[in-house]
TrEMBL record:
Superkingdom in the source lineage: Bacteria
Function: Catalyzes the reversible formation of acyl-phosphate (acyl-PO(4)) from acyl-[acyl-carrier-protein] (acyl-ACP). This enzyme utilizes acyl-ACP as fatty acyl donor, but not acyl-CoA.
Keywords: Acyltransferase, Cytoplasm, Lipid biosynthesis, Lipid metabolism, Phospholipid biosynthesis, Phospholipid metabolism, Transferase
Subunit structure: Homodimer. Probably interacts with PlsY.
GO biological process, alphabetically ordered: fatty acid biosynthetic process; phospholipid biosynthetic process
Species name: Thermus parvatiensis
This protein's name: Phosphate acyltransferase
Reactions listed under catalytic activity: a fatty acyl-[ACP] + phosphate = an acyl phosphate + holo-[ACP]
Family recorded in the similarity comment: Belongs to the PlsX family.
Top enzyme category: transferase
Length: 326
């Protein structure tokens, strides 16, 4: 199985992207680097590595509009989608312009039957393992039917990740049926009818980290706010802990005793451990990472993509959508 990596995507491309690809290749991932061949091969030479490169002379910069992919067929993010559509690779990973990646996937690959809008899935650590939230930002405004499709795709992803009989929660401002805005109130009966016992009901923001349900659905505006809030809070909490543990000689002695435990906690909340978010609902395995990603995040994105393709993620998504009781 081969994965196409947009080597020009991200704030520090191609340096960290190529470094992450080399690290993933050493762990058994077959990577095809797509981007400016001269720049990519220079980075490979610097690292003393040799990976296949597909030349793409153009790339979409972070400040450009997403729709540029339609008129620039040689842009790296467009080329990786074309390779996926032709079956020359089995998955695509990009740490670049998320809007351009979404636009390229829709333009080249199209949507899975039954999907009105694709969704970004965000993975959060929880007390019970992991919670998967959709949509993480692909659709700021949603119709109730979108949330039903997000739920089906989220269940498919959860099962591909090893969850047994996962359930779906609808993000709201209260657990009781009838709470929430118009979107939540209209989506509730649709989810209940479509998912049956797999639908838990309303959940609140704290339930994401408590692990009340394995899957949580919401509109992309709310989901992206939740994501950025969680990332910011984790960073601030770790900073406060570090300040507290270095505030005195006694605190520094205590820090030595808990250093390994704190390192494990830090790893659990580090976005780099998850690598990239899958774009569910397009006809292909597409994964989108942070533009600020480091080499570790790139490596983990490639490892995650490989594992999920091997678990039959796309076919699971198709099956869940076709089985909806709507």
């Amino acid at each position: 199985m081969r994965i196409a990596l947009d080597a020009m995507g991200g704030d520090r491309a191609p340096q960290v992207v190529v470094a992450g690809a080399v690290a993933a290749a050493r762990e058994g991932v077959e990577v095809l680097l797509v981007g400016d061949e001269a720049q990519v091969r220079a980075e490979l030479a610097r690292l003393g590595a040799d990976l296949p490169v597909w030349h793409a002379p153009d790339h979409i910069r972070m400040e450009e509009v997403a729709t540029e992919v339609r008129r620039r067929p040689q842009a790296s993010v467009r080329v990786v989608m074309e390779l996926l559509k032709r079956g020359e690779v089995q998955a695509v990973v990009s740490m670049g312009h998320s809007g351009a990646t979404l636009a390229a996937a829709l333009f080249v690959l199209g949507r899975v039957k039954g999907v009105e809008r694709p969704a970004l899935l965000v993975e959060f650590p929880s007390l019970k393992g992991r919670t998967f939230l959709l949509d993480g930002g692909a659709n700021a405004d949603c119709r109730p039917s979108f949330l039903v499709q997000f739920a089906a795709m989220g269940l498919a992803y959860a099962e591909a990740s090893g969850a047994l009989a996962p359930r779906v929660g609808l993000l709201s401002i209260g657990e009781e049926e009838g709470k929430g805005n118009a979107l939540v109130q209209e989506a509730y009966p649709l989810l209940k009818a479509a998912l049956g016992e797999r639908f838990y009901g309303n959940v609140e923001g704290r339930d994401i980290f408590l692990g009340t349900t394995e899957v949580v659905v919401t509109d992309g505006f709310t989901g992206n706010v939740v994501l950025k809030l969680a990332e910011g809070e984790a960073k601030v909490l770790l900073t406060w802990i570090k300040e507290a543990l270095t505030s005195s000689f006694r605190a520094r002695l205590g820090a030595l005793l808990v250093r390994e435990a704190l390192a494990r906690v830090k790893a659990r909340v580090d976005p780099a451990q998850y690598g990239a978010m899958p774009l569910l609902g397009v006809e292909g395995a597409v994964f989108i990472g942070h533009g600020s990603a480091d080499a570790l995040a790139v490596k983990n994105a490639l490892l995650r993509a490989k594992a999920l393709v091997e678990a039959g993620l796309l076919e699971r998504v198709r099956q869940k959508l076709s089985a909806l009781h709507v």
